[in-house]
């Protein structure tokens, strides 16, 4: 069942919308808080447009019914070109239900140069994109968005929608500079650029159906043993139209302090594949991959987990904590676990130790197929 929004949450969301409208962001909307009807698809194909590594020698395989295909040489037809890897993630999702096809672009990598290069080499068709999703407000997930729109906006649907987890996506992020109390800029998603490109943006603090085939978890409840591992810091407020709504201020922020990033509105993207179960895609999973899967189960009413995919932000995890989290993942009984991006080599090794028949390690350009 979808999470209902209480009056305080609703007023905050309304204030965020009003602030955006006042600044000229008429393309910002708040997703409905009504319960959703979770769609079912027959098949899902996931192409990794950007991840941190490319394996030239990757062999095709089938693991627990999931087909994993390599990208080939990574050069396309021109030997002078090669797939670009970088710290970030971008996934091209194609789903099928009977004769109905949908395409979603989830996250956009760190830079437009890498995203545009890989789109060309992998010969994916941006004109097919029915919807865009940004998982959370980190530059390595939205950095290629503006460049993608600059290149392809004229071939995309005129009413194209970007689904973001919530107002928190637009906050200013900072990285620790290695000296206590000092930070370096880590950017912020600029909704003015989205408005200029005539992109409708929907803030999905509650579960939302996307393109009739996928659904988002909405804000993820934190019920597991998981904790947010150190990452960025955040400050809230709108300055000259850039930033996020100030009604979410904490006492520390009201004193002018930046605070550790809690990723209030990070959400996961999910599919229910007929006869298989849930495919839960967590682009970074700062709020916990187990929490994300549990939220998907609650939202959909589907207990069976077919695949847990994406970034799990366990690269910096201490050994004992990592062992605990992988054990919790194993208890969810997924058919496959597919670590990418910030999951970490340590996670892949621990998952292979605890779940040796259930792990797929993809690469930039590879394709995963779920369902018939």
TrEMBL record:
InterPro entries in UniProt: DHPS-like_MBL-fold (IPR041712), Metallo-B-lactamas (IPR001279), Metallo-beta-lactamase_dom (IPR052926), RibonucZ/Hydroxyglut_hydro (IPR036866), TAT_signal (IPR006311)
GO molecular function, one term: hydrolase activity
Keyword Cell inner membrane: no
Domain of life: Bacteria
Keywords: Hydrolase
Signal peptide start and end residues: none
Listed name of the protein: MBL fold metallo-hydrolase
Residues in Metallo-beta-lactamase domain copies: 100-153
Record Pfam families: Lactamase_B
């Amino acid at each position: 069942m979808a999470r209902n929004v209480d009056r305080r949450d609703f007023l905050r969301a309304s204030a965020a919308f009003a602030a955006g409208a006042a600044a000229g962001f008429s393309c910002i909307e708040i997703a409905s808080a009504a319960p959703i009807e979770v769609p079912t698809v027959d098949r899902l194909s996931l192409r990794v447009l950007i991840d941190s590594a490319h394996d030239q020698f990757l062999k095709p395989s089938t693991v627990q019914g999931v087909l994993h295909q390599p990208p080939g040489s990574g050069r396309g037809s021109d030997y002078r070109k090669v797939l670009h890897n970088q710290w970030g993630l971008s996934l091209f999702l194609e789903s099928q239900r009977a004769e109905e096809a949908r395409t979603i672009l989830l996250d956009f990598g760190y830079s437009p140069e890498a995203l545009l290069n890989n789109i060309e080499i992998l010969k994916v068709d941006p004109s097919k994109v029915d919807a865009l999703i940004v998982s959370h407000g980190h530059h390595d997930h939205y950095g290629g968005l503006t460049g993608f729109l600059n290149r392809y906006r004229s071939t995309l649907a005129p009413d194209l929608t970007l689904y973001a987890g919530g107002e928190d996506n637009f906050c200013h992020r900072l990285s620790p500079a290695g000296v206590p109390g000092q930070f370096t800029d880590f950017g912020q998603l600029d909704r003015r650029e989205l408005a200029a490109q005539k992109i409708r943006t929907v803030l999905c603090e509650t579960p939302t159906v996307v393109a009739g085939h996928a659904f988002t978890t909405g804000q993820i409840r934190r019920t597991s043993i998981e904790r947010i591992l150190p990452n960025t810091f955040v400050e809230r407020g709108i300055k000259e139209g850039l930033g996020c709504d100030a009604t979410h201020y904490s006492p520390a922020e009201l004193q002018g302090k930046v605070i550790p990033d809690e990723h209030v509105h990070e959400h996961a993207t999910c599919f229910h594949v007929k006869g298989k179960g849930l495919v839960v895609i967590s682009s970074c999973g700062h709020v916990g991959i187990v929490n994300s899967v549990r939220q998907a189960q609650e939202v959909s009413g589907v207990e069976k987990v077919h695949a847990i995919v994406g970034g799990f932000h366990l690269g910096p995890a201490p050994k004992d904590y990592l062992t605990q989290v992988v054990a919790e993942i194993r208890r969810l009984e997924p058919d496959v676990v597919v670590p990418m991006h910030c999951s970490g080599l340590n996670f892949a090794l621990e998952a292979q130790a605890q779940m040796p028949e259930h792990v797929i390690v993809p690469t930039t350009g590879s394709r995963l197929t779920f369902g018939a």
